[in-house]
Amino acid sequence: MKAIIVDDERLARNELKRLLEEYPEIEIIEECNSAADAIIAVDKLKPDVVFLDIHMPGKDGFGVLEELDYMPHVIFITAYDEYAIKAFEVNALDYLLKPIEVDRLREAINKVKAELVEPVEKSEKLGVNDQVFVKDGDRCWFVNLSDVPMFESEGNYVRVYFDKNKPLILKSLNNLSNKLDESTFFRANRKFIINLNWVESIENWFNGGLMVKLKNGEKVEISRRQASKFKEMKSL
Questions:
Q1: Domain check: are 9 and 94 in the same one?
Q2: 10 and 105, same domain (yes or no)
Q3: Strand (E) positions, the chain?
Q4: For 162-177, how does the pLDDT look when each residue is reduced to its tens digit (9 = 90+)?
């Protein structure tokens, strides 16, 4: 199990490394003392788990997650109780309060092991088995892509639809399209990407296009240019 430790305090990093010596199955492949270093390291090394300090100078732990292309399992570490609630709001795997208790560390590591029982080879593209981190103002979520019926472009932002939420993320639709598995996430037109697993019905539309209704009740037009590709993918 490959791990990265992110904490701006050297003594805190050393203490966690000492505690992790009891777990030979955990290989610490990098440690970072800043958010900027953490973003680079996680995207490059693709660890199984990141022990992530929340409260750091400049960009905090939530800001780190917001900029990652690769999303590992996350165990938050904090000296501040108020961050614990926020950590659970984003569905972090677990959180540890400083000073870290041995029993709580064991529980957190067992959760990681449970998630990694059947590791699979990850594609470079994001698919329905992956999750993304979404931050909109003070609210944060880890979102399973299987729960996202569609993405909508709004200028330099993309609106992410899931459950009853529609937060905006600072990415272009073109950028997002390049990262998503095109066999599941289909570029319907210049404004929308849809999750093909959410398609409920299809009807012919104007000028050779199609209109699809998604399981969440939303309707999205597939442009004439994309309609033939869609029909081929869906064997229509």
A1: yes
A2: yes
A3: 2-6, 27-32, 49-53, 73-78, 94-97, 131-136, 139-144, 150-154, 157-161, 168-169, 185-187, 192-195, 199-204, 210-214, 219-222
A4: 999 999 988 889 888 9
DSSP string across 78-120: ES-HHHHHHHHHTT-SEEEESSPPHHHHHHHHHHHHHHTSS--
Q: Which two tokens stand for residue 223?
A: 């442009």
Per-residue pLDDT tens digits for 105-155 = 999 999 888 877 655 555 678 899 888 888 887 788 889 999 999 999 998
| pTM score of the predicted model | 0.70
State which residues form the domain around 33. 2-115
- In a domain, residue 38? The reply is yes
> Residue 94 falls within a domain, yes or no?
yes
Task: Give a yes or no: residue 89 inside a domain.
Answer: yes
